[in-house]
Structure formats: structure tokens, C-alpha cells
Design goal:
With 260 residues, the chain is mainly beta. Helices cover 12% and strands 47% of the residues. It has a single domain, classed as Acetoacetate decarboxylase-like (Beta Barrel). A 7-stranded mixed barrel has the order 1-2-3-4-9-10-13. The chain is globular. The two termini are 26 Å apart. The N terminus is likely disordered.
Length: 260
């Protein structure tokens, strides 16, 4: 069975309350009446930036349902992950691979099922790839289809910038410098969780071989948008971790249900 998801619903500009509702995952998506659906996608030739910053725990906790535990350990600040990725191809089964950009924002959590090198609870998810957006929406993830995300990186330069424009909400940009690495650093697995009325979704990215480089990045957003209010500032740095990575292949799986 396939559930139709309208393109208009994916790209529609949400009112503030609706957009913040997605950023408040404790309010499950009750419209997902016949979800969940799982899927597996193959990714090829990808670069990604990883920035881990800190936000006030009180702000972050309001976004996370009680069945998930923040990795803050009771501290006044909580690690937050901003990830951007550009792959030459994503394919589902026998589909022809198409380019894809993904931008994710979420809080680091204690691994609910004890797996993964890092587990995060998803606040916002954006992608330029319509098939991926449709698969995610069918799985119950409120992904935003934003075809005009600008991902500016060339191996000939250290300059780097990614811009999530309106109608992406909240809109923001990540920019700075990156230094790639060409030394393999082993495998890596990340899990990004989302809750539904019927359970939880785990988006699992398995990377068999990853090259981990370095970065110096800053996030800029409107201070009065949900992202700025979450961090308490319209300018965000990443003192915990900054990386710029490359991997030739990976698998993205939506595992449903996956109980925390």
C-alpha cells in the first residue's frame, strides 16, 4: 500500500505555530493514520558537515518527548547537532540515482536501543530530493522539501556554505571553512529519531568507510525564529565538534517501529 503525499503539502509555507509544532516532537503527527512505512536507500559519493553546539537544556527539553533522554546528563546545556550533506546519488531499490542535499537539526540523546555511534532526536529535516521527501513523509517524518537549498563546496577551495532558504522553516545558513581528509577512519552509524502517535521512527545511516576532516563553521538564523530561540541566539558556533567528511557509499534506512 502506498499513501499519496501531495507536493503542495511538502513545500507549503507553514504558519509559525505549525512549523514550531514540528520542532516540538512531543506533539506526535496524528495525521499519519496509516503510517508507518519503512524504506532503504543507497547513497553514493557524499560530503557532509557536522557541527555540535550547545543550547540551554531547558529550551531543548521542551522539544523532546519524555521517552527519550537527553545526553546532557543534567547539565545546563545540551549538545545539538547541525548536519548538512550532499550526495551525488540516492536511489530506492531499482530507481535511478538522483542528487540529494539533506540538512538536519537535532539534539544528542542517550541511545534508546543501545546502538549507533551517535543518536539524535530530530527537530528539523530538509531535503532537495522529492522522492526522499515523499518516502520520509510516508514514514511519518515531517521532512520539508526545499529544492533550492544552496550547497556551495568545491574541492578546489576551503570555503563552504549551505543555505536553507524560505520556504524552509526555520531558514538559516551554515558557513565557514572546511578541510577534507583522505584517510579512512573506519565505519560509522548514526540514528536520527522522530516520534509518532503510533511509536518511533529511527533513520539509520550506515557508513562502511568514512574520511573525517575538519571544519570551522558558524550558523546564522533569525534570533526570533524557532532555531534562534532554541539556541538563545541568531549566531551559533560549534565548540563541541566540527567535522567535514567524505564517504563513497552508505545506506539510509527508516526503521519502523523502533521503540525507545
Amino acid at each position: 500500500m502506498t499513501r499519496a503525499v501531495s507536493i503542495g503539502a511538502l513545500i507549503a509555507i507553514p504558519p509559525f505555530a505549525a512549523a514550531l509544532g514540528y520542532g516540538t516532537p512531543a506533539q506526535a503527527d496524528d495525521s499519519c493514520a496509516i503510517c508507518p512505512f519503512g524504506f532503504t536507500a543507497a547513497l553514493t559519493n557524499c560530503v557532509e558537515s557536522i557541527g555540535v553546539g550547545l543550547a540551554p537544556t531547558a529550551n531543548v527539553q521542551a522539544y523532546v518527548p519524555s521517552e527519550f533522554t537527553l545526553a546532557s546528563g543534567g547539565a545546563s546545556t545540551t549538545p545539538m547537532v547541525v548536519r548538512t550533506s550532499r550526495c551525488e546519488g540516492i536511489s530506492f531499490g531499482q530507481d535511478v540515482p538522483l542528487p540529494v542535499v539533506v540538512v538536519q537539526v537535532g539534539a544528542v540523546i542517550v541511545p534508546p536501543d543501545g546502538t549507533g555511534n551517535i543518536d539524535n532526536f530530530t527537530f528539523w529535516y530538509y531535503t532537495t530530493n522529492l522522492p526522499l521527501a515523499l518516502h520520509l513523509r510516508e514514514a511519518g517524518v515531517r521532512a520539508q522539501f526545499v529544492p533550492d537549498i544552496e550547497y556551495d563546496y568545491s574541492p578546489a577551495s576551503t570555503a563552504f556554505s549551505v543555505t536553507v532558504p524560505y520556504p524552509g522553516f526555520p531558514a538559516f545558513a551554515v558557513s565557514g571553512t572546511v578541510v577534507p581528509s583522505y584517510d579512512a577512519s573506519g565505519s560509522f552509524e548514526s540514528l536520527w529519531w522522530t516520534n509518532l502517535a503510533s511509536g518511533s521512527v529511527a533513520l539509520i545511516t550506515n557508513v562502511p568507510v568514512i574520511d573525517i576532516g575538519s571544519a570551522n563553521l558558524t550558523l546564522a538564523t533569525a534570533a526570533d525564529d524557532p532555531l534562534g530561540e532554541l539556541f538563545g541566539s541568531g549566531t551559533v558556533t560549534f565548540p563541541v565538534t566540527q567535522q567535514f567528511n567524505f564517504f563513497a557509499s552508505a545506506t539510509l534506512t527508516a526503521s519502523i517501529p523502533a521503540s525507545p
